[in-house]
């Protein structure tokens, strides 16, 4: 390592990590800096498109961005950072295979993001699935379609009812969009079953507060509830999941029923791996962050996104930036620019971005949006949702592929084939060895 070529270590390949490295790649290719990105996954997932990937509107491969292909000029390490000793500027890396080793750096970007925020609910770990990566989206799509197959072939009324009951916990963006998109897909799929009607399915959304989609405001949140209920979807507000052992769901309002499909989307929390660092954390386990995206109290350390408490300079109440893609992408761009400014001997600049608004899809041709204070519903909101997010997907390659998926959907019917057997590819071979 030489002083002339600073080594920038980016811990995490999500929104912040990938976009920061993307902003540094040209300087790395010119030899001004060296950039290393460490992440357990070799792709970045564009999470706002996960509901559409689960519903079959977008090819799952098109919502992930391969890091090595995108970050030319940067080194990508597939592994997990298990500890950071910033006092000595060393990170411990555990690769996918092989022993742990130390990796030295000059400057570090901590972009570990968030993980699902769970509660100690009986049966949750065994029966529920999350919705944060493309594998979970594919598995959930397969599960929903597989349950339709099971119900169609099942004479037992109780088992059939359980197969056709789908429960989502959490009324934020991830929960509502996945809930609405998958119901829309399943409703369409029932036309191919002679003994299943849309009204035979039960879709239940459980939310502990008194409203859903708080980001779009009270009025649009109420509108969303009304629209979903018109589709015969069961919205339970001010209700909590008490237990789901062996698929038997118990809600805080006293109702009990069986469900084969349970999805947990009740919020996120800062990655607990931050505890294995010598950086300052706040009461929520996030990195204390200055407005210029430096970690508070230390030099040569930066952060942004879900794992950072970034002051919102547009707020008069001392609030922090919301943990969403809109802020993460813009913070990453500012972060990359600030690192290059520091390398060139210039002071970093503060991050300041006034929240534009929110958009949410509620299924094909349905949505809600609030942009610059203007409320939009229905088809136009759905179109704005797609337009905004395709503009945010990194690289022209991915934008073109997503648009092509949507264009083909205009001329061909929705694909509703289950590939659930992909999750157990050796099952048939195993049976053959036992026969």
Give a written overview of the molecule.
- With 435 residues, this protein is of the alpha/beta class.
- Helices cover 32% and strands 23% of the residues.
- The chain has twelve helices and 24 strands.
- The strands form seven sheets. It has a seven-stranded mixed β-sheet with strand order 7-6-5-2-1-8-20.
- Strand 5 and strand 6 (90-95) form a beta hairpin.
- Helix 1 (15-29) runs parallel beside helix 9 and helix 5 (134-152) runs antiparallel to helix 6 (157-163).
- The longest helix is centred in the N-terminal third of the chain and has 19 residues, at 134-152.
- It is globular.
- The chain crosses the membrane at residues 6-24.
- Its EC number is 1.6.99.3.
- Residues 7-319 form the FAD/NAD(P)-binding domain.
Question: What order do the helices and strands come in, and which of them pair?
Answer:
Layout: E1 7-11, H1 15-29, E2 34-39, E3 43-45, H2 50-55, E4 64-66, H3 67-70, E5 75-85, E6 90-95, E7 101-104, E8 107-110, E9 114-116, H4 124-127, E10 128-129, H5 134-152, H6 157-163, E11 165-169, H7 173-189, E12 202-206, H8 218-230, E13 234-236, E14 241-243, E15 248-251, E16 256-258, E17 261-264, E18 268-270, E19 287-288, E20 301-303, E21 308-309, H9 325-343, E22 357-361, E23 367-371, E24 374-377, H10 378-392, H11 396-409, H12 427-434
Parallel strand pairs: 1-2, 1-8, 2-5, 8-20, 10-17, 11-12, 11-17, 12-13, 19-21
Antiparallel strand pairs: 3-4, 5-6, 6-7, 9-18, 14-15, 15-16, 22-23, 23-24
Helix pairs in contact: 1-9, 5-6
A few lines on this structure:
InterPro entries: FAD/NAD-bd_sf, FAD/NAD-binding_dom, NDH-2. The chain is an alpha/beta fold. It contains 12 helices and 24 strands.
């Amino acid at each position: 390592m030489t002083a002339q070529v600073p080594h920038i270590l980016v811990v995490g390949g999500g929104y912040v990590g990938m976009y920061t490295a993307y902003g540094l790649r040209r300087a790395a290719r010119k030899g001004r800096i060296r950039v290393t990105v460490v992440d357990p996954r070799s792709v970045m997932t564009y999470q706002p498109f996960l509901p559409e990937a689960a519903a079959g509107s977008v090819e799952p491969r098109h919502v992930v961005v391969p890091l090595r292909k995108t970050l030319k000029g940067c080194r990508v390490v597939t592994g997990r950072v298990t500890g950071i000793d910033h006092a000595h500027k060393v990170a411990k890396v555990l690769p996918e295979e092989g022993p742990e080793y130390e990796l030295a750096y000059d400057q570090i970007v901590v972009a570990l993001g968030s993980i699902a925020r769970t509660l100690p609910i009986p049966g949750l770990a065994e029966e529920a699935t999350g919705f944060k990566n493309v594998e979970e989206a594919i598995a959930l799509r397969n599960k929903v379609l597989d349950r339709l197959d099971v119900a169609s072939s099942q004479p037992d009324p109780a088992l059939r009812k359980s197969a056709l009951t789908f429960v989502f916990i959490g009324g934020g963006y991830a929960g509502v969009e996945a809930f609405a998109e998958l119901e829309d897909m399943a409703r369409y799929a029932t036309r191919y079953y002679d003994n299943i009607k849309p009204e035979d399915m039960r879709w239940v959304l459980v939310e502990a507060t008194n409203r859903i989609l708080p980001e779009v405001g009270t009025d649009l949140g109420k509108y969303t509830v009304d629209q979903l209920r018109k589709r015969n979807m069961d919205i339970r507000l001010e209700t909590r999941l008490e237990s789901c052992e062996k698929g038997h769901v118990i809600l805080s309002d006293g109702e009990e029923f069986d469900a084969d499909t349970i999805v947990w989307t009740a919020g996120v929390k800062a990655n607990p791996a931050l505890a294995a660092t010598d950086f300052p954390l706040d009461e929520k386990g996030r990195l204390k962050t200055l407005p210029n995206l430096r970690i508070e109290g230390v030099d040569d350390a930066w952060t942004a996104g879900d794992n950072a408490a970034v002051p919102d300079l547009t707020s008069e109440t001392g609030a922090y930036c919301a943990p969403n893609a809109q802020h993460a992408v813009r913070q990453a761009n500012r972060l990359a620019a600030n690192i290059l400014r520091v390398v060139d001997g210039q002071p970093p600049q503060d991050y300041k971005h006034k929240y534009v608004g929110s958009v949410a899809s509620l299924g094909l041709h349905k949505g809600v949006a609030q942009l610059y204070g203007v409320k939009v519903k229905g088809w136009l909101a759905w179109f704005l949702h797609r337009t905004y997010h395709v503009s945010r997907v990194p690289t022209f390659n991915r934008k073109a592929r997503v648009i092509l998926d949507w264009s083909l959907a205009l001329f061909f019917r929705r694909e509703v084939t289950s590939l659930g057997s992909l999750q157990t590819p050796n099952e048939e071979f195993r049976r053959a060895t036992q026969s």
